[in-house]
């Protein structure tokens, strides 16, 4: 278990849809531990595997006393209510903009042992579930902003001190979870 470098806006892994996890083993448990350690070290409410350069459908969360992880998550919207509020992202450090999300969701997925998990979330937890699931689909929250706010956000991102900096060199070996049956 260790803290991993977080990939920043502009890294292609953040725009690449993640693949489904097919093997629930020690490597997956290590990935979830690394995600959790990194999320806590960075002060985030959630972290998706692509944000540390791993293209698998896994994310961790720690919001308002609810902490855990979801493997191969999906979610359903509950009701028509929406919420608009400040949202940020560890891959877009130091910047936040108002983003509209569904107010209530029910997420379903698996834990690291391949057992089914259901998480019901409202407000911040619902926002986190939607945000992290978007990461797994190659979508960033700036894509969800209204046109005017998105234009402002892109200008602020381009002006950020970290924008355009070379990514840290991380040796990546093929992940054993690709292509094996559960």
Can you put this structure into words, describing what you see?
- The structure is a single chain.
- The protein contains three helices and seven strands; from the N terminus they run αβββββββαα.
- By secondary structure, it is α+β, with helices and mostly antiparallel strands.
- This is Peptide deformylase.
- Pfam families: Pep_deformylase.
Describe the protein's topology.
Blueprint: H1 26-42, E1 46-48, E2 58-63, E3 66-77, E4 82-89, E5 92-102, E6 104-110, E7 116-122, H2 123-136, H3 147-159
Antiparallel strand pairs: 1-2, 2-3, 3-6, 4-5, 6-7
Task: Give a brief rundown of this model.
This protein is an alpha+beta fold. The protein is 24% helix and 30% strand. This is Peptide deformylase.
């Amino acid at each position: 278990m260790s803290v991993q470098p977080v990939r920043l806006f502009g890294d292609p892994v953040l725009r690449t849809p993640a693949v489904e996890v097919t093997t629930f083993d020690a490597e997956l448990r290590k990935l979830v531990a690394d995600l959790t350690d990194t999320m806590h070290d960075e002060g985030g409410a959630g972290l998706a595997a692509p944000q540390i350069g791993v293209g698998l459908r896994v994310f961790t969360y720690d919001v308002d006393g609810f902490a855990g992880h979801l493997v191969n998550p999906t979610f359903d919207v509950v009701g028509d209510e929406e919420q608009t509020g400040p949202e940020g992202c560890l891959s877009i450090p130091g910047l936040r903009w108002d983003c509209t999300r569904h107010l209530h969701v029910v997420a379903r997925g698996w834990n690291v042992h391949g057992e089914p998990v259901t998480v019901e979330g409202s407000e911040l937890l619902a926002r986190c579930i939607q945000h992290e699931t978007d990461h797994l689909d190659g979508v960033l929250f700036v894509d969800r902003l209204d046109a005017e706010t998105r234009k402002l956000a892109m200008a602020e991102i381009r002006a950020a001190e970290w924008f355009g900096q070379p990514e840290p060199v991380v040796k990546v070996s093929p992940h054993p979870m690709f292509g094996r049956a559960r």
